[in-house]
């Protein structure tokens, strides 16, 4: 396959020195429907923009671009990094991005509010192994907390509020016999979590890779695996788009889905390559990369865990209007 370069582009949304915010592929302006149709018809590449997050979860799409998978399906992909999936959702609605990456709870909330979006491709899935997953609930080394229940009444950092981390932390607390509404969840960007924990501004952090390993290397201690324990085979996030995009250009959407699934499988089959690609959109020392725990990268959307996210979102009051899973998930044209 022909390999394609990934060009760097610094965006103002994230000032943390740990991260290099990058873009891949084409220009700044989104193509018109006419240009898209022409590109698909004559072998030229169609430019698409995708909003992602600087974490291990999105390694497959970076690999897909690098390995020419998207190019094989007629797509020239520009990737732009944001702090969280909740911030990417409005960018999809405004047309700034053609596709976006977001956690499942944020997508469920958006759908319950009537936003015209659908999940089109899977993202990362838990390893299912407590103590050996890519997300960790961490406390300072000298903390008295030994389990999630010990965090009742404590301040816990999550990257954004009202997302999948709320869901799994509250369900984990409930399953362990604690009061799920007792934790004070505080919004802290992933790159800032370690410093906030060390300074004592929060009692615990819920971090994903690479930030979980960075925090552990600084002395933080894991007391719970919030993706592996409360929900079986949890699919944490996925790729989505606006329903107008699906209706107006189903061939483009199907091309993205096919390329994304192939990229997921490539990352699953080549975990070392998935680690190596992190250097394209983060600044992590090679010795830290070697320690990272990678998620699973399935090709199919996990409907069972998605249904459980919908149920828990209702139970915890994150949504007041029911969400039909068949309207949330796009099955393809």
TrEMBL record:
Stored InterPro entries: SsuA/THI5
Positions of the SsuA/THI5-like domain: 57-274
Short name of any one Pfam family annotated for the protein: NMT1
Coiled coil: none
Domain of life: Bacteria
Main location as per UniProt: periplasm
Signal peptide coordinates: 1-25
Keyword Signal: yes
The protein's name: Nitrate ABC transporter substrate-binding protein
Source organism (scientific name): Enteractinococcus helveticum
Lineage: Bacteria, Bacillati, Actinomycetota, Actinomycetes, Micrococcales
């Amino acid at each position: 396959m022909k390999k394609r370069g990934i060009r760097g582009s610094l965006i103002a949304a994230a000032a943390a020195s740990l991260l290099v915010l990058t873009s891949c592929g084409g220009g700044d302006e989104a193509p018109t429907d006419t240009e898209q149709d022409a590109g698909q018809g004559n072998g030229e590449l169609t430019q698409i923009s995708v909003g992602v997050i600087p974490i291990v979860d999105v390694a497959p799409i970076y690999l897909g671009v690098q390995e020419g998978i998207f190019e094989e399906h007629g797509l020239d992909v520009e990737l732009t990094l944001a702090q969280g999936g909740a911030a990417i959702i409005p960018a999809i609605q405004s047309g700034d991005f053609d596709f976006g990456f977001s956690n499942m709870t944020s997508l469920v909330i958006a759908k319950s509010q009537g936003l015209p979006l659908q999940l089109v491709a899977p993202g990362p899935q838990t390893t299912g192994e407590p103590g050996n997953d890519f997300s960790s609930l961490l406390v300072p080394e000298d903390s008295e907390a030994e389990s999630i229940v010990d965090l009742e009444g404590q301040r816990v950092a999550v990257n954004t509020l009202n997302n999948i981390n709320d869901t799994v932390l509250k369900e984990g607390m409930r399953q362990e016999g604690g009061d799920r509404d007792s934790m004070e969840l505080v919004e802290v960007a992933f790159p800032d979590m370690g410093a906030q924990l060390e300074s004592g501004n929060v009692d615990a952090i819920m971090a994903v890779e690479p930030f979980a390993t960075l925090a552990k290397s600084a002395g933080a201690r894991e007391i719970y695996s919030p993706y592996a324990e409360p929900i079986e085979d949890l699919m944490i996030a996925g790729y989505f788009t606006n329903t107008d995009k699906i209706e107006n250009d189903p061939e483009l959407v199907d091309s993205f889905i096919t390329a994304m699934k192939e990229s997921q499988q490539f990352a699953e089959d080549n975990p070392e390559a998935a680690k190596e690609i992190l250097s394209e959109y983060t600044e992590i020392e090679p010795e830290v990369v070697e320690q990272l725990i990678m998620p699973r990268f399935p090709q199919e959307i996990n409907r069972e865990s998605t249904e459980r996210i919908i149920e828990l979102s209702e139970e915890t009051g994150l949504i007041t209007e029911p969400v039909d899973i068949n309207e949330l998930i796009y099955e393809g044209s």
